[in-house]
Write a structure and sequence with these properties.
The structure holds two protein chains of two kinds. Chain A is an all-beta fold. Chain A is 0% helix and 45% strand. In chain A, the strands form two sheets. In chain A, strands 1, 3, 4, 7, 8 and 9 form a six-stranded mixed sheet that branches. Chain A has a three-stranded antiparallel sheet with strand order 2-6-5, with no helix packed on it. By secondary structure, chain B is mostly beta strands. Chain B is built from no helices and ten strands. Chain B has a six-stranded mixed sheet, with no helix packed on it. In chain B, strands 1-3-8-7 form a four-stranded antiparallel sheet, with no helix packed on it. The radius of gyration of chain B is 13 Å and the shape is globular. The chains are: A mainly beta, B mainly beta.
């Protein structure tokens, strides 16, 4: 089964907002509200940023928000900061394979 | 503090076996589902296997089913991944991750497994 589809890269200037999309099917993203987002800095482990589509774990900045429409989930980062530059991965529960990840999106803060 | 520490990675020949361990601390390990997620260097994340909090249910990605076995010892707060019949395509950084419910949190720092001929 193919990975969830994310753009390979996005960029934005400090203070701007960006949105990363994550497209799946009705068997994964569209079928469950179990979409999560992870931030990964180079050489580091992933870090949970959003879970259950739009919930933020304690300690994660409210500049990070998530949403879903149909088979596409989105991560929005507002007020971009230099430290937001990282790779971002979406994940969704998928009944046939348990868990799927997106291919990852490299965020560049210009 | 909450911590997961993987160990057991290294270089292994094609067809051989390796067992990874993941020691948990700072949270109630026996209440968490646990998973293994791997990442080929420079590539994306791939879910490998998961186990319920009590070990009663296990699931595997198609690519490792029949070769890998996930297990846990709640008395030792430790998660394991027994990897048999290793292939070159199993080369990756292997992360253990807690699963408090439909998400992966926390994550360990990862251990690199290199399979070579």
């Amino acid at each position: 089964q193919s990975a969830l589809t994310q753009p390979a890269s996005v960029s934005g200037s400090p203070g701007q907002s960006i949105t990363i999309s994550c497209t799946g099917t009705s068997s994964d993203v569209g079928g469950y509200n179990y979409v999560s987002w992870y931030q990964q800095h180079p050489g580091k482990a992933p870090k949970l940023m959003i879970y259950d589509v739009s919930n933020r774990p304690s300690g994660v900045s409210n500049r990070f928000s998530g949403s879903k429409s149909g088979n596409t989930a989105s991560l929005t980062i507002s007020g971009l900061q230099a430290e937001d530059e990282a790779d971002y991965y979406c994940s969704s529960y998928a009944s046939s394979v348990s868990w799927m990840f997106g291919g990852g999106t490299k965020l560049t803060v210009l | 503090q909450v911590q997961l520490v993987e160990s057991g990675g290294g270089v292994v020949q094609t067809g051989r076996s390796l067992r990874l361990s993941c020691a948990a601390s700072g949270f109630t390990f026996s209440s968490y589902g646990m998973d293994w997620v791997r990442q080929v260097p420079g590539k994306g994340l791939q879910w490998v296997a998961g186990i319920w909090y009590d070990g009663s249910n296990k699931n595997y990605a198609d690519s490792v089913r029949g070769r890998f076995t996930i297990s846990r010892d709640n008395s030792k707060n430790t998660l394991y991944l027994q990897m048999n019949s290793l292939r070159a395509e199993d080369t990756a950084v292997y992360y253990c991750a807690g699963d408090p419910g439909w998400r992966f949190d926390p994550w360990g720092q990862g251990t690199l497994v290199t399979v070579s001929s």
